[in-house]
Specification:
Chain A: Keywords: Membrane, Transmembrane, Transmembrane helix. Chain A: This is DUF3488 domain-containing protein. Chain A: It comes from Halomonas urmiana. Chain A: Pfam families: TgpA_N, Transglut_core. The structure holds two protein chains of two kinds. Chain A is built from 22 helices and 18 strands. By secondary structure, chain A is an alpha+beta fold. The two termini of chain A are 61 Å apart. Chain A is elongated. By secondary structure, chain B is α+β, with helices and mostly antiparallel strands. Chain B folds into two domains: 174 residues, no CATH class; 108 residues, no CATH class. Helix content of chain B is 33%, strand content 30%. In chain B, the strands form five sheets. In chain B, strands 1, 2, 5, 6, 9 and 10 form a six-stranded mixed β-sheet that branches. In chain B, strands 3-4-7 form a three-stranded antiparallel β-sheet, with no helix packed on it. The radius of gyration of chain B is 28 Å and the shape is elongated. The chains are: A alpha+beta, B alpha+beta.
Chain lengths: 723, 318
């Protein structure tokens, strides 16, 4: 079928108003394309280099001028130069072209530049297609509700510009068609979304790396105070079964076991294996269950909705015991994912709710290591306390914690800076003001000085409970505490609880001192409006929506799909059983027949409704009504003559129509008055109703045509009526 | 239109096969386009769209990105719905032809195509023998004219009409072929003689005196109708004038010079000229004599006779 393309005829003119059959795009279509580009660009706005906006303006402005003032087309050399400049600019901006950000920038830049060489319908369609790809790529940045809504808008816009390209006459028609397309295809989309099997990644793709907020690997004093300035969400958790009490919500993320006199740092399993010359497998186990502790001890079962992060950490309430998918279970009782999360992910987790009950394979010696020289004043204090407690570790730890309560320690989010060599000394004896990491660090050092294995645990404490029952844990909930090894298990010690119990119970916003640092970086956060009732309700409502979206749509992966399908199948089975019980008869056949009968009835009702609508429409339009009557008359051999008006037709046959004659004449009068007389709306309606009655009367009263005899009235069209 | 180009093999079996295939392919004119005669052919853009769906699906799989999944599925759904709506856009359209009243060789015939449908239809393309047009159906009817070239005189069998639509997205072309047996009689190209024959002077310029009325007959010039009479009595009548005796003319093939086509062209031009002048004329062709007459009827008869005349008569008809 080598059909000649309709566009193959020479273009009629440069500025064709409708895009009927010409090759060129007119100005309004170019504007449509450009607005579509801007909408797609808006999806990337927060993540792309700002100068791409200038590029968009330049390209759009040039095309506008070209259309308005007849500037020349952009030549091949210029286009190649523009792409080259784009590549160089991206290289300068990102330092490399290989990163995902640079690739996305390249896609957007080429998408914009393509407008320069968009001359005909095919080019325009290519532009729209690149736009669709760029829309999908925007989902790498974010998958929240605002992004989805903006993407839907862009998608609808692109779709309607395609309708315009296919011959839509005006904006209204194009939008109507696009709306039909979107609405009719939405159920299909939803069905496919639910039923399509979710596969794992087929091959590895370049990933976006984001500067991550939240906890950092090396904790220097002051880091956690930085976090309290941020309201970023760390994760959300929903518990199956009982919720933990406020004092139990210690989310362990990682442990710090190495102290160099100034800062605590983390030893990864690989580092430990290298340092202690043992296999890595001794420090980490991969699987869906913890190799270190029996899962039977699980107290809490939670479903975590994790925010994307460049590090593979997975918070766990106490020691992790079992998870939905395979994870890395570290020997220090923390959990890591196999990969970092590039988008939000769901994690099902059983955990103990308490510190791990198994020894760290790194050994107790590793957890007692301290620099010998550092912090002499602390060492003296430890020796005194140890003597006073009579060499009993329990008593020693008690008196150590009690000392934090007795001395004039303050909990503040903006403590004075410590710069000396013996920072623990400086903190314990001089400044005596700090926050969780200061206290945890000092307590761990004091425990180690007494020969008790100790480590600092970093994680989150608390979380805001949403009325829907899930907890939102934010960056400012970050916390540090201490674990000490006592008699076959680790034991949690939180010196902050002694100094600022309100921090444990109510969160960091409850701490008054240094409160100006709290949420300092989130000046416009809705969290600042906690006190305002309606604003807080609004915020909670939005968070609920957001949570459901993230959990139900974005987190819809293999397991949720399986459970949803199972639920649907159960529902179907239940409905079928219900139907079987309700319909008479037994067995599948009877039920099917009953169902078929129901469907048939429904179809009958639909048909009747349609007929009724048809009749109603007929009554609304006198010309149609009379037209139908004329057709009916023609069927009885009383057709109109060629060129005869309807009224004349009715009048002509009236004398020979017997009892229907008067009605026919009235019909003709009414029709003429309705057609020509300037009537008010009420009178018009009255006459229309009367006309409809008269038409029915004609049909009733018109005598039946005489049955035809062989050849008798052949060809005579008007002899059918007994006159 | 390779369908129509593949003509000529003489074997009856292939001929039968071809006829069967053509019958399978096309819809007769003046009938609604049925489901089984609508053909869906993906366009290049449609294939690109399919590729895009696959690419976005792979994107969603590899990045485990549910919104990309959703977009891929939505594009797929939109494609399916566009296919359906494009198909519905052509289904049930009733094509009809309006043959041009006159067509001269060397010009173009404006073939009117009337498409009727109850629902509004968008962006229908008409193709016929290289000519194309674009129309919408609003309020039940849409009309367009196709400018068909008429290179030669004689009876011209019009090729099939192809109706297609790429509505709503251009992903798929819905095509229907409409078969018809309309023939167009193409009159010869009028050729004015270089030296115009001496015309009689302005002596009898005026049309003549009013002589009375007679019953209107179809074909009478509207200018001759007694409209005043009609408005009074409702009876259409035609005014008659007592034409002054004019010289009655015979247009003779044998009296012209040149090859047959040229002679026919000259005769055609003369017929037109005499008709314009309102004269009576007759036509003598070898083997055919048209009695003298006047008016539109005579003109048509004479031009038809010229179109059908001679060796090239059988060529156009298949």
């Amino acid at each position: 079928m080598s059909a000649p393309r309709p566009a193959s005829r020479p273009a009629l003119s440069d500025k064709m108003a409708p895009f009927a059959d010409g090759r060129r795009l007119d100005g309004s279509l170019l504007r449509q394309l450009f607005i579509g580009q801007c909408l797609v660009l808006a999806l990337h706005l927060a993540w792309m280099p700002v100068w791409l906006l200038a590029l968009a303006l330049a390209v759009g402005g040039y095309r506008w001028q070209q259309w308005r003032r007849g500037w020349p087309r952009v030549g091949v050399v210029m286009r190649i130069a523009a792409v080259g400049a784009l590549v160089l600019a991206l290289r300068a901006h990102y330092g490399t072209l290989g990163s995902m950000d640079a690739l996305i920038g390249l896609l957007l830049g080429v998408y914009l530049l393509k407008l320069l060489e968009t001359q005909d319908r095919r080019d325009a369609r290519v532009v729209v297609m690149i736009g669709l790809i760029a829309t999908a790529v925007a989902f790498l940045h974010d998958q929240g509700i605002p992004m989805a809504a903006a993407a839907l808008l862009a998608f609808a816009w692109l779709l309607q510009s395609l309708v315009r390209l296919a011959g839509g006459r005006d904006r209204r028609q194009a939008w109507r068609e696009a709306a039909w397309l979107l609405a009719l295809s939405a159920p299909l989309m939803a069905l496919l979304f639910v039923t399509f099997p979710r596969l794992g990644p087929l091959w590895s793709m370049p990933r976006l790396d984001r500067a991550s907020t939240g906890l950092s690997d090396q904790i220097a004093p002051g880091d956690i105070a930085e976090l309290s300035r941020s309201a970023g969400r760390a994760f959300r958790a929903r518990f199956e079964g009982p919720d933990p009490a406020p004092g139990e919500r210690y989310w362990r993320v990682y442990t710090l076991s190495h102290f160099d006199g100034i800062r605590w740092s983390r030893a990864t399993p690989e580092q430990l294996a290298a340092t202690l010359e043992r296999p890595v497998g001794a420090f980490v186990g991969v699987g869906a269950r913890s190799p270190w502790q029996a899962p039977a001890t699980a107290r809490f079962r939670a479903e975590l909705l994790l925010e994307p992060d460049s590090r593979p950490w997975r918070p766990s309430l106490g020691a992790p015991l079992a998870t939905g998918q395979a994870q890395r279970y570290l020997a220090d009782g923390t959990l890591e994912g196999l990969t970092a999360l590039s988008s939000r992910g769901l994690l099902r987790l059983d955990s103990s709710g308490a510190a791990p009950a198994y020894p760290d394979p790194a050994g107790s010696r590793w957890h007692r290591l301290l620099p010998v020289q550092a912090n002499p004043r602390t060492r003296a204090l430890v020796e005194r306390l140890w003597r006073e407690s009579g060499g009993d570790p329990e008593a020693y730890l008690e008196s150590m914690m009690a000392r934090f309560g007795e001395a004039s320690y303050r909990y503040t989010l903006s403590p004075p800076r410590l710069v000396g060599e013996d920072r623990v000394d400086d903190f314990l004896f001089d400044s005596q003001a700090g926050y969780c990491s200061h206290y945890a660090s000092a307590a761990a050092v004091m425990a180690r000085m007494a020969g008790i294995p100790a480590r600092v645990v970093v994680g989150f404490l608390g979380g805001e409970r949403h009325p829907d029952g899930y907890y939102t844990v934010r960056d400012y909930d970050a916390h540090a505490w201490v674990e000490v090894w006592r008699e076959g298990g680790w034991q949690r010690l939180d010196p902050t609880a002694v100094i600022a119990p309100e921090r444990i119970e109510q969160g960091p916003q409850a701490v008054e001192e240094g409160a100006e640092a709290f949420l300092a970086d989130a000046r416009f956060s809705a969290l600042r409006l906690r006190e305002v009732g309606w604003a807080n309700r609004l915020r909670l409502g939005w968070e609920r929506l957001e949570y459901r979206w993230q959990r139900g749509v974005i987190g819809f992966q293999r397991e949720s799909r399986r459970s949803l399908l199972a639920r649907l199948a159960d529902g179907w089975r239940a409905a079928w059983a219900h139907l079987e019980a309700w319909l008479p008869g037994r067995g599948v056949l009877a039920t099917t027949l009953g169902l078929a009968a129901l469907l048939l009835m429904a179809a009958g009702v639909a048909l009747l409704a349609r007929l009724g609508a048809h009749r109603w429409r007929l009554q609304q339009d006198e010309r149609r009504l009379v037209g139908a009557l004329q057709a009916w008359l023609a069927g009885r051999g009383l057709a109109a003559l060629p060129g005869e008006s309807p009224a004349a037709h009715l009048r002509r046959i009236a004398p020979r129509a017997g009892p229907a004659g008067r009605a026919l004449n009235d019909c003709a009068d009414d029709l003429e008055r309705l057609a020509y007389a300037p009537l008010e709306a009420p009178e018009r309606a009255v006459r229309r109703r009367r006309l409809s009655r008269r038409v029915a009367e004609v049909r009733r009263r018109l005598p039946k045509p005489k049955p035809r005899r062989g050849g008798g009235g052949a060809g005579a069209r008007e002899t059918g009526v007994s006159s | 239109m390779s369908v129509m180009a593949g003509v000529a093999p003489r074997e009856p079996r292939r001929e039968r096969l071809r006829r069967w295939w053509r019958g399978r392919l096309a819809t007769p004119i003046d009938a609604p386009l049925p489901q089984r005669r609508l053909f869906l052919i993906p366009t290049r853009f449609g294939l690109g769209w399919a590729a895009l769906v696959v690419v976005l699906l792979l994107f969603g799989i590899n990045y485990q990105n549910n919104l990309a999944y959703g977009l891929a599925f939505w594009l797929f759904g939109v494609g399916v719905v566009a296919l359906l709506r494009g198909w519905l856009n052509l289904l049930g359209v009733m094509p009809g032809l309006r043959l041009p009243r006159e067509a001269f060789a060397g010009g173009e015939a404006r073939l009117g195509v009337v498409l009727r449908a109850r629902r509004p239809r968008m962006a229908l393309e008409l193709h016929c023998d290289g000519a194309d047009a674009w129309l919408d159906i609003d309020e039940g009817v849409g009309e367009a004219e196709l400018a068909l070239p008429t290179p030669t005189r004689g009876s011209l069998a019009l090729p099939w009409l192809r109706i297609e639509t790429r509505w709503p997205l251009g992903l798929v072309r819905v095509v229907a072929w409409v078969s018809h047996d309309a023939e167009l009689l193409v009159w010869p190209r009028p050729l004015e003689e270089e030296a115009p024959t001496a015309r009689q002077g302005g002596a009898d310029e005026d049309a003549g005196d009013f002589a009375g009325l007679r019953r209107f007959q179809p074909g009478d010039s509207p200018g001759q109708v007694a409209w005043k009479q009609w408005s009074r009595s409702g009876v259409l009548a035609t005014k008659q004038f007592s034409a002054p005796p004019r010289r009655e003319r015979w247009l003779d093939y044998d009296a012209c010079r040149g090859d047959p086509e040229r002679r026919l062209s000259v005769l055609c031009a003369r017929v037109l000229a005499h008709h314009r002048a309102g004269e009576r004329f007759g036509l003598r062709l070898p083997g055919l004599t048209l009695a003298q007459g006047e008016g539109d009827g005579q003109r048509r008869r004479a031009l038809d006779a010229l179109a059908r005349f001679g060796p090239s008569t059988g060529e156009g008809a298949r």
